[in-house]
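Propose amino acids for all 442 sites.
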């Protein structure tokens, strides 16, 4: 019985005094704290989903992201055949002809709309579109001229959300003026849009066209380069565009006062010809354009810095553990848990405050609050002002470092690597004279 009690006592003392076991325990606590970290990430995702729902609701009343397809000409023709009773019948097919030259220029006027805590980027854009078009030789398509319904030639403009159209669209085609109506002859090239019959189409020679579009949209504006040579030029006072899609601008200038961007796309750059029958080709993959980004998206920023939560916990625990070694004062695992939870509270404070005030201000308030809390707790449990000041300095440096990483998005990886190198080097320097074997035997 006595031997059993001595064994239990020795085991208890070993667990209490063993640095190896303490490090192992701290590692377990870090893994445990990943559970509330995951819960915070879910909270951020939930808030972001709520924000996206509100933005979608606003966009549905103003106009969703817009994709402009065209213009292009659709001409129906008859394809005759013999049925099983040897009777002559015909099917109606559609010849789609894309322009030789297409030029689009416009000015995007952005506007921020608010709903509750959230904001959405809307825009109005005036597009000036002109170009020319030529009917190909029909013999190349095995179509007889007499089978073509020239009087049904339809001038089409694909517009993804017709609710955004603000003014009547008038087409000037070969000197004649036509008013557009909603709807397309077919959905082979675009799912929705406007168009008109053009009686002044010339089967031979060039056909010229021009028109203007005044349209509302939200966040994104895209174009599909249907021209043999497509030139698009856009300008806007919005300072943070994101150029995306199949083609990037050939030239662009972005500053705090806005941006200008120009694209030039040739028919050789895409995977469809200038004319075809029915739905032989899909043109959506060639879309290009831009997105008006809100750089104050607090949810994306908070998600980015949440990735550093484990690093914060590990290095803060390391500071307290080294203090245990140096000051010969033992901390209970519950105290480590409370410190780790305090670090995680920073993220909930940040996401909640940033919905009401500017993100940078919310960051400062949250970081300052948590630093004061942990510093006060460190002094309360160790009764050592020097260590409390040290903890305060460590947290201040880490939060400042994280803020800098957040601002330098393009250099986040190298900043993170350098920061970890500096911190690890500092820990190795501070602990260089500690005799870990002596600690184990004490």
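Proposal:
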């Amino acid at each position: 019985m006595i031997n059993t009690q001595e064994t239990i006592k020795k085991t208890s003392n070993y667990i209490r005094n063993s640095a190896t076991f303490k490090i192992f325990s701290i590692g377990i606590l870090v893994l445990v704290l990943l559970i509330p970290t995951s819960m915070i990430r879910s909270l951020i995702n939930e808030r972001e989903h709520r924000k996206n729902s509100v933005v979608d609701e606003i966009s549905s009343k103003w106009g969703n992201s817009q994709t402009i397809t065209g213009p292009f000409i659709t001409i129906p023709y008859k394809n005759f055949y013999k049925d099983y009773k040897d009777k002559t019948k015909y099917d109606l097919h559609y010849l789609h002809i894309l322009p030789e030259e297409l030029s689009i220029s416009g000015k995007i006027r952005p506007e921020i709309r608010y709903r509750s805590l959230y904001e959405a980027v809307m825009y109005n854009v005036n597009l000036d579109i002109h170009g020319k078009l030529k009917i190909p030789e029909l013999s190349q398509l095995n179509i007889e001229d007499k089978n073509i319904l020239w009087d049904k030639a339809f001038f089409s403009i694909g517009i993804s959300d017709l609710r955004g159209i603000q003014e009547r669209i008038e087409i000037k085609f070969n000197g004649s003026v036509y008013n557009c109506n909603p709807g397309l002859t077919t959905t082979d090239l675009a799912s929705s849009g406007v168009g008109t019959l053009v009686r002044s189409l010339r089967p031979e020679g060039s056909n010229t066209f021009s028109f203007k579009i005044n349209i509302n949209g939200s966040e994104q504006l895209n174009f599909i380069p249907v021209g043999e040579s497509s030139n698009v030029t856009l300008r806007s006072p919005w300072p943070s565009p994101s150029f995306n899609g199949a083609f990037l601008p050939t030239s662009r200038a972005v500053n705090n006062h806005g941006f200008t961007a120009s694209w030039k796309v040739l028919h050789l750059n895409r995977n469809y010809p200038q004319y075809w029958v029915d739905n032989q080709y899909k043109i959506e993959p060639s879309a290009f354009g831009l997105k008006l980004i809100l750089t104050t998206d607090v949810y994306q920023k908070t998600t980015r810095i949440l990735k550093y939560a484990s690093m914060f916990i590990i290095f803060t625990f390391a500071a307290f553990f080294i203090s245990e070694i140096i000051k010969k004062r033992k901390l209970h695992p519950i105290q480590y848990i409370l410190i780790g939870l305090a670090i995680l509270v920073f993220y909930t404070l940040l996401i909640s405050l940033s919905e009401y005030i500017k993100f940078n201000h919310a960051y400062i308030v949250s970081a300052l609050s948590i630093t004061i809390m942990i510093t006060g707790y460190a002094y309360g449990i160790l009764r050592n002002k020097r260590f409390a000041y040290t903890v305060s300095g460590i947290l201040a440096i880490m939060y400042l470092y994280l803020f800098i990483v957040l601002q330098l998005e393009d250099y986040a990886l190298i900043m993170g690597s350098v920061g970890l190198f500096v911190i690890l080097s500092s820990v190795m320097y501070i602990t260089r004279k500690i005799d870990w074997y002596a600690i184990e035997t004490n």
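The domain at 70-294 is CATH 2.60.40 (Immunoglobulin-like). The radius of gyration is 33 Å.
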